[in-house]
Amino acid sequence: MKNKTRKLVWASFLLILGIILPRLVNLTGSITLGNLISPMHIPVFLTALILGPFYGTLVGFITPLFSTLLFAMPPMMPPIAVLMAFELAAFGLIAGYLYSDRSKNIYLSLIAAMILGRLVYGLALIAIGPIFNFNPPFIPFLQGAFITGIPGMVIQLVLVPMIIDKIKPIKEFAEFNRKIK
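The chain above was modelled as a monomer; its predicted structure follows.
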């Protein structure tokens, strides 16, 4: 299989995982559990760290939109799915870029992506919210996004590096692919 084909297969797998994980969390019956642990974010971070910023951005943008088309979650009205598309795309871009070309520090890459992605979420709210007649107070909304997301951030900072360490052959494959671009 060619390198590009492998990357597309892995990106597709992680995209599907990003759609399925939130559904599995919903099976617990808790409405707020998905908001707390942010299961859709984990496959996006994995995509960024394994395949780089291009695929991380692509999977990040598409995942919430496909999930909305298939399961009506996250909702389109209010435009949470659209806001999440920009947020997760920023996660994929920033984590993939910092990890692949800069520091190789997984924690720095994840934390920077988490913070900047939340800010992109807020900026998307300012830009897109009025189009959908969705105008919550900005500061409390952004505070809620950060505070509600803390348990998910902790889970991601524990799980994502563990998963990356367990899939070293895939990681080495991705690094090899980045070098031969």
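The chain has one domain: 3-179.
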